[in-house]
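Exercise: predict the fold of this chain.
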Amino acid sequence: MTFSSAKLDTLRIPAIQAPMFLISGPDMVVSACEAGIVGSFPTQNARTPAILDQWMKKIRTRLDSDPNAAPWAVNIIMHPSYDRAKADFDVILKHKPPIVITALGSPAALVEQVHRYGGIVLADVINPEYAKKAAAAKVDGLVLVSAGAGGHTGYLSPFVFVHEIRRWWHGLLVLGGGIGTGQAILATQAMGADMAYLGTHFIASEESQCQTEYKQMVVQADSGDIVTSDAITGVKANWLRQSLSNGGYDPDDMPSPGKIDFTSAAGTQNKRWKDIWAAGQGVASAKSVQPVRDIVNTLVDEYHKAISAVVANPHLSTKAHKKEETL
């Protein structure tokens, strides 16, 4: 299944189930796509390139037979320390996922090859400087990771970030960071983004690969339970307070930054994230463990109710009409 921009118009809501380390895998991706949003996973979740090959074959087999399924995406780390990047990309070229999302490094080395098979490339960025570098590499879209995102996070307000990038970027724009409801998805569009990037809500899904205890911690948490720290991986990330305590850290006095090192991610990185758990500031949106389809159905319902509420609000409608009359 090659990518067509028209495919995004068939989504039930403009949303991507974000790739999450150790959490999203083939079952989550397929369920998300079947439910009507883009499903994705990071390549390093498959412990070896051979397993990655099996995962991608499974996803293609299940989705290629469903003409109504949304396109799927794979996320690949481009940091120089990630020693599996070339092997993982060879598997990507074999299976031709419609969307490739790059993170923690330049996408320049793979854009042309993904375009050659008909796919598109989106680049995760956390500030305008990185966004301009990704644009120079001729990516098709930018994923703005703003403050509040789970796992590796940005630091800019989404309002500021979208506004600055939209002044010069006219391609696909995806916004992530604390988004966990249909209302928030609509708000991303009002700000000028095309799509929303949601991860944390899907941690507490039946298809999630994480431990039951992790899912329950997410269900019980709210924004006050999120701690931002670069002590674990060397990159600023949002963590569940209780998991930091369980791991022997003082959430209110975290140590100095760790070393950025993605070498053999199934080893050291895997061990860190296995016991110390990430989540975004929108964690309170997950109220119970549910199938992915039910989560998406709720988001769709919230999204359309939010549209109806805006349309029906006489104050907003009147102000909008008056503004138009003065122009």
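Check your answer against the key: The domain at 5-211+281-318 is CATH 3.20.20.70 (TIM Barrel).
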